[in-house]
Amino acid sequence: MITIKEIAKQLNMSTTTVSNVIHDKEGEVSKEKRRIVQEFLDRVDYVPNINARNLAQNESKIIGVALKARADKYENLIMDPFVSELIGGIEETIRNAGYFMMLYISRDTEKIMRHVSTWNVDGLILFGMLDDDGIRVSTKYKKPIVCIDTYSIEGLKHFTNVGLDDEKGTYEMVKYIISCGHEKIAFMSDNTKGVDLARLTGYKRALKEAGIEFKEEDFLKIRPKSDEIDASLEEICRRALDYTAIMCVSDLYAVTLMSALQDRGIRVPEGISIAGFDDNMLGSLYRPALTTVHQDVKKKGVVAAQTLLKLIKGEKTDHQITLPTRLVVRDTVTKPRKSSFYGFR
Amino acid sequence: MITIKEIAKQLNMSTTTVSNVIHDKEGEVSKEKRRIVQEFLDRVDYVPNINARNLAQNESKIIGVALKARADKYENLIMDPFVSELIGGIEETIRNAGYFMMLYISRDTEKIMRHVSTWNVDGLILFGMLDDDGIRVSTKYKKPIVCIDTYSIEGLKHFTNVGLDDEKGTYEMVKYIISCGHEKIAFMSDNTKGVDLARLTGYKRALKEAGIEFKEEDFLKIRPKSDEIDASLEEICRRALDYTAIMCVSDLYAVTLMSALQDRGIRVPEGISIAGFDDNMLGSLYRPALTTVHQDVKKKGVVAAQTLLKLIKGEKTDHQITLPTRLVVRDTVTKPRKSSFYGFR
DNA sequence: TTGTACGCGTTATCAA
DNA sequence: TTGATAACGCGTACAA
Question: Which pTM was predicted?
Fold first, then answer.
């Protein structure tokens, strides 16, 4: 690794001149010297030492991307197509802007914050944070932060969030399900916080509007840990028979449920209608193709990164950026089954 | 951000002492001072500046993970469940070893190498490289490199590769397909290089061993770009009718093909048998559940990272680490259809 | 237009 | 056991 100092020595000039050429400072170095230096630079394939540069300028050109993993889901966090699509969008945007991306996954908010301060990152994108994290984060850290899909009361005062109209998206889907003639509609998820809560709320609103009463038991809770999921699905499939439609909180769960139902001889949509949320390849590749709520996940990542870049530049942005959803009607929601026909084979 | 210098000043001692406490140097600082400094450190929540540390030590604690994107696949590289699972395994291993992960995606090998030299990364994990890249990389770069799934002749001399017995895995699957009674078996992929070539070779070997002749037309080429895939699938589905089984190079393609066939009224496995390769959630969640060749992708990432960490420590490792595959028999390969029954509905 | 010299925060060397 | 100081590579204010 050749240094500026070394180049200056070999060319018999000062480091300032070399540095000026590197940084293309106009009118501060003669044409002749510029040519000589540039040529040399190209020849030896000069690459600056980022650490030295960062140290001198007190900036890092690094954007930290921290994923907070939930204990009960960790094993497959990054396998979730949602997460990978998101990262794809972020990475692309960061890279095109000349920044670098440092990826960090942890269950521990403290560790995440320590990590980003160590690296003196210029900005931070957070995913998977819950309400209480927001407070701890914002008091510790003064650089720009953009959250993705965070619903929090305290947090929003301090930093920007890129999210989705989860409530409305689900509301519209459930309204559509009701319009197909369904009255017994369950909701399936693994928790009732953040995004899941918003979607649950939308589901309840549609129910209420149609004069359908929501009972606690209509919430089907799936336990995604690998040692629990089979038992969990077994129970859900049993309880599913009481409903004619199930609104799933994600495509992943919708597809998981459909497979489990199919394995038990219950056919979708003849026996029961299923709706998802996300619109990723899991649902679009499945047959019957999944009726779902579309969101543009890659765009979510892109917008989050773009917003952060703006904040780094010192521009102001909205505190809440909400991306739209769209109903994608495919084949898994039809009219309710007749009496007790589940499609058993 | 408080610095060592500042701490030393406030505590009225030298930076050396503070630094020694931070680094827990045995017997180099008195019990009393150690206590005082440690207390102060905790109180002000000291976080070291990595740039300064790296500059002083000439190491970065960064491991670069570079994904070389293929032009014709780029749009969904990171969406591929394979890639995200791989990254998950790498990230976890790197993090647990106290290293950091910098993710970089590019189509341009030159850019990738420039990126890693800039950051002075301690080691490099490469994925998606082809033969000719290997040469360019190895001449430019002297730090440890681990490749994943790279088949190259020149490259292997210079750095370690973590791969799979792709040839054998496919061979065994096709042998199994043949044992089910099939004789007209196609192979589907989007290229004939690297991993795909190895799998194609395994397929051909099984065919040959069974006395089945391979013809060029038995290679079904899918074009995965979004503006071509529909036409591509249309043609493949038409040609598929000439076969009783299709060996797909990946689960993604297997599932994509099954959906396309299903949409045209051709049933799997009644009309045609389909096998995949990878064993990811796409195939296991699909119904009928995909018969496929298992590989442990997360482990691939873990092993790659572990190997790189060893190399960084100066230990020797094998130049080629080959992970095993395993046949996963599920529901998409059965005996061949009778005459011309495709399961049209 | 060019060069000198210092600061960035840390670690390491060596003397006290 | 502690402290002063050089070194890491780069950017830049200021002097020449």
Answer: 0.88
Q: Are residues A288 and A303 in the same domain?
A: no
Which residues in chain A, range 52-71, keep a C-beta under 7 Å from any nucleic strand D atom? 52-53, 55-57
Chain B residues closer than 8 Å to A259 by CB: 285-287, 289
Q: With respect to residue B328, please indicate whether it lies within any of the assigned structural domains.
A: no
Residue A332 resides in a domain: no
CB A114 within 8 A of CB B124: no
Highest mean pLDDT: which range of A22-36, A69-83, B303-317: B303-317
Tell me the C-alpha distance between B200 and B167, whole Å: 7
Distances (CA, A) of B32 to B6, B21, B25, B28, B35: 20, 11, 14, 12, 5
pLDDT band at A341 (very low <50, low <70, confident <90, very high): low
Clarify whether residues B171 and B276 are in a common domain. Answer: yes
Shared domain check, B13 and B72: no
The amino acid at residue A40 is F
Instruction: Establish if A277 belongs to a structural domain.
Output: yes
At B101, is the secondary structure helix, strand, or coil?
Answer: strand
Model pLDDT for residues B22-39, shown as the tens digit of each residue: 888 765 678 888 889 989
Tokens of A74: 């960790």
Count of the separate structural domains present in chain A: 3
- Residue A127: which domain range? 62-164+297-322
CATH code of B197's domain:
3.40.50.2300
List chain A residues with CB under 8 Å of B49. Answer: 55, 118, 120
